[in-house]
Structure formats: C-alpha cells, structure tokens
Amino acid sequence: MGGFEGHLYPGLSFFLYGLHHAQLFSRALICNSPAQHPPCGARGRGPWARLWQVCDVGLVKILSACILVAQELHSLPRPFALLTKRYHQRDFLFRKQWQHITLYAAFLLSGCVDVASQHVLACRCVALEQGAQALGMAVLLPLMLSHMQDTEGVELRSHLLLTQVMFLLTLVLTAELWVPSELRLRALKAFLCALSGSWLMQLAFMLYRPMSGYKWMDDDHNDLAFVTTAFCCHVTCVAILMLWIHGCCWVCRVSPGPMWPVPHVLP
How far is 26 from 236, CA to CA, in rounded Å? Predict the structure, then answer.
C-alpha cells in the first residue's frame, strides 16, 4: 500500500466495509435478529433482481482486490521478477510491491468465498465466510510488521498504530468463528474496520500530501505527538459515527420483516 493511492483506496474500502457492518449490527440489535446479512433472494423480483443479488459485498471485494493488484503490477518494471540472478545473487526484488499483492490476493480469496457461499452453495455457510475474513487479517499482520522494517519517525509511529488496530481486528474476527452471534463482537468488528480505514486515509494525506506542504520531521517530538493525538481523534470520531448510525437505524425502525427474513444458513 505504498504511495498516496495505495493508502487511500484500501482505506476507503475498509471504511465503507466498517460502515456496512455498523448498520447491519444496528439492525440486528434493534430487531433482535440473529441474521447478520439479508438473504440473497430477499430483494424483490423483476429484471434487476438478479443483478442486485450479485452486486454484494463479495463482488465488491473481488473488484477492489483486482484493481489494487493491477495497480501494483503496473508500478513494477518489466519483466516481472521475484529474484535477481545477477552476479550469482538471489536478492528479493520489489519486496513491498509483492507484499501488497500477497495481501490483496488474500482479500480476493475472501471475496470469492463470499460469492461462492451466497450464490453457489445450496445453503449459505457464514462460518466459511468468517474464516476467510480471519485468514485475510492473519496474512495482513506479518506483512505489516515486515513493512515497517525500514521506516522511522512519523511513518513508523503511524504504522504502529495501524498495526495495533489490525491486531485487535484479527482477534475479533478469530473469536467470531466460535461465537458468530455475539453482538458485541459484531460491534467491535464494525468499529475496528471503520477505524483502520479512516486511519489509512489519514496516512495517505499525512505522509504524502501534508496540508502544510512540508515534510514531517522524524526527530521532532511535536510531530510524533501530533500523530498520536490525530489517531485518538479518529478513535473518538469513529465511535461517534457508530452511535450516529445506530441512532438513525433506531429512528427509522429498520425491521427484518418481509424484506429481510432470517436466511437459512449453515452454522
């Protein structure tokens, strides 16, 4: 996720995914429903019904991952190579780009699992979808740690805070495999996804397009303190946004009624 676009686009995807789960959690809490997602066949009939069924979160994951992989491949010089053979060396080339591609491939797999579970299997298997999500985050953590090896100062501090959020999100997704109907885990997942996306978008502007027009000073304690303060502001703002979404759902009295019947899923 190098460069401005490499932080902005994944951050936007995480942020919107978190907002999506925030409204699903609010609907489940208000309506006292165990269903996290609407069933595939519950969005009406007509010529657009099939298209609406396919255009779900899984397909968005697949398209986003493919776009990001294409962006990374476009930034690599030709011919594509993993190792150099010059002078009898075996150096790993373009390690950050290949780390990004590995990460995007994990989320591409998660999107494929979502589509297969919702549109191919006879009964939707939510546990399979959650397992693919947990696997994607488990792949992300070691890549994030390796990604920070040659960073320092403001960039290191900001990525450490991001890694902290990703670690907590991995724990939540793993715990959700054993208690998939726990509403508190759903709330934490929505909050951490939105927070990681919000902070990634902040990193895009803070590291690559700072408002002051000047580069950050890695040895300046004021700049390092600003990073931590900005992260705490993001935590507060995302929490307020979650409460606002829940309040809107409560006012609108979103009900699973005839439009959102409880789907038949495999445990």
Answer: 19
